[in-house]
Amino acid sequence: MSDSNMIDLLEDKHPVRVYKFVQHLDGTDWTLDALEKGFSHRTIKGWAWILQDQDVGTDHVHVLLWTHKEVSPEILASWFALPGPQVQKVRGGKAAIKDELDYMRHQDRSSQDLGKVRYPDSAIHAIPGWDWLAFDREMDERRTLSGSGRQRSRNVEQAMSRGLSVRSALTRSTTTEARLRRARARYLLAQEPPLFRLAFYMYGNDALLVDAIGQGLAEALAGGHDGVFVTRNGVDEYDGERVLYWNTSMSQLVLGDGLQGAALVAALDVFPSRTSVNTRFGHTQLVHEFTVISGTRPYRSPESLLGGFREFLEAWMDHLAPAHLPVVVSVSADQLEVQVNARLLGKGTLDQYLTLGRFRMNLHQVLAYARGLPEKQRRAVERDATRRQVAPILEARDRVMEALAPSDSPAGESLPSPLAQLLAETGKEVAV
Fold first, then answer.
1. 274 in Cβ contact with 192 (< 8 Å)
2. Sheet (strand 88-90) strand order
3. DSSP letters of 245-271?
4. H helix or E strand, kind and range, residue 217
């Protein structure tokens, strides 16, 4: 089924008018065929029904449906070959749909108090393209996070303990953002850090070009934009994202800012341990797997923009062991040069880097050309070009991962590349 046929009731901005009816099957000429005929009317935008044949009494069906425009119950009843009074309008919109789904399965409190038979989720029949179970779970989450007083506080803590991010909670809850962030910080503080944490430093004279590739790499590593935390004013609003992205041209990494001390070490430690980081929402922990840093100065130059950041790393070297940036990428207008720390590959010292290769680089020309395209097309071209360009860097990531996690260990088995297809189709090496 194509995405165009999928039904996202939660995001539907149209008015939702809900109706329901119950029809007994015994002793009548009415059959389930009438449901198919009724649902075929275009005015009906969605539906669900259940056959209740385990209750005391006759077998019967419960049906709910919704429309965008107002329809009289009498007209709806005629579509299903029913008497006019049998169809009822239900107030409450999407919340009413949730209530009816619970009642159909006898999951509601009143049905349970009466000892009614509970029906499994599989007994529900719903319009194709509607994931009614996902809708049901989402409505449960929203209700949990929208209580009041002490109960809401307990509900928020419980939701965060299940790993709910602040980004997701803000779409569901009336709770203040500060309360959510405090609860999220406590949850992250209790988590185990990843087995490995790899950092990438990308640099070149063209700050916009380096930033474009850096963001593209961060999103590729994270599996999407939502998995990237962009550090602008420290890590106060870190939400458990998989990747941290620092643009040193926009945010200087100097001692005294929000990324100092424990936060800085935790962000770059190849073998991270549980480390408490202080934020304005309380102590938390960075649990990201990858750090991507972009800048305009070479990593090894004395005047590097990293400046005191590098000296700070060297001062902590005994603890980091090792924590030089594992992958360094030089970006020019026509090519990338990808280097990997020799120590991490077991082929040298911390001060040595092995060049994996130089790769064709035409992103600058692509970005320049794409500026003349309509915005939607331009963004699509830029995403595709960036995705292709970061493939060699992802290959470097895999080389380091393989060296750190032997293939016969559980860790090695748990770290497959999520972008194997991308790696196979891109990254043409330049002959030297």
1. yes
2. 88-90, 17-24, 60-67, 44-52, 125-126
3. EEETTTS---TTSTT-HHHHHHHH-SS
4. helix 207-222
CA pair distance 155, 161, nearest whole angstrom:
10
Nearest residue to 392 via CA among 419, 431, 353: 419
Name the residue among 314, 339, 336 with its Cα closest to residue 324: 314
| Beta strand residue intervals within 3-59, DSSP E | 17-24, 44-52
Q: What average pLDDT does this structure show over 305-329?
A: 52
Distance of alpha carbon 52 from alpha carbon 312, whole angstroms: 69
Helix (H) or strand (E) holding 330: strand 327-331
- Enumerate residues 6+ apart whose C-beta is below 8 A from 82: 21, 23, 30, 34
pLDDT tens per residue, range 408-422? 444 433 333 433 343
Model confidence pLDDT, tens digit, residues 169-179: 666 655 667 77
Six-digit token string for 311: 């000296």
Residue the block writes with tokens 């609860």:
183
| Cβ atoms of residues 249 and 231 within 8 Å | no
Q: Full-prediction pTM beyond 0.70?
A: no
Give the pair of three-digit tokens for residue 429. Answer: 């090496």
Q: Are 200 and 299 in contact (CB under 8 A)?
A: no
Binned at pLDDT 50, 70 and 90, residue 322 comes out as: very low
Using alpha carbons only, give the angle 96, 101, 105 rounded to the nearest 5 degrees: 145
Contact between residue 326 and residue 341 where contact means Cβ atoms under 8 Å apart: yes
Task: Say how far apart CA 218 and CA 242 lie, in whole Å.
Answer: 9
Q: What is the DSSP letter of 9?
A: G
Which of 8-12, 107-111, 227-231 is predicted with the least confidence, judged by mean pLDDT? 107-111
> Which residue has tokens 């039904």?
7
Cα-based distances in Å from 289 to 75, 190, 198, 215, 310: 58, 16, 7, 15, 21
pLDDT band at 255 (very low <50, low <70, confident <90, very high): very low
Residues in the chain: 432
User: What gap in Å lies between CA 295 and CA 211, rounded to an integer?
Assistant: 8
The Cα–Cα gap between 157 and 294 comes to 36
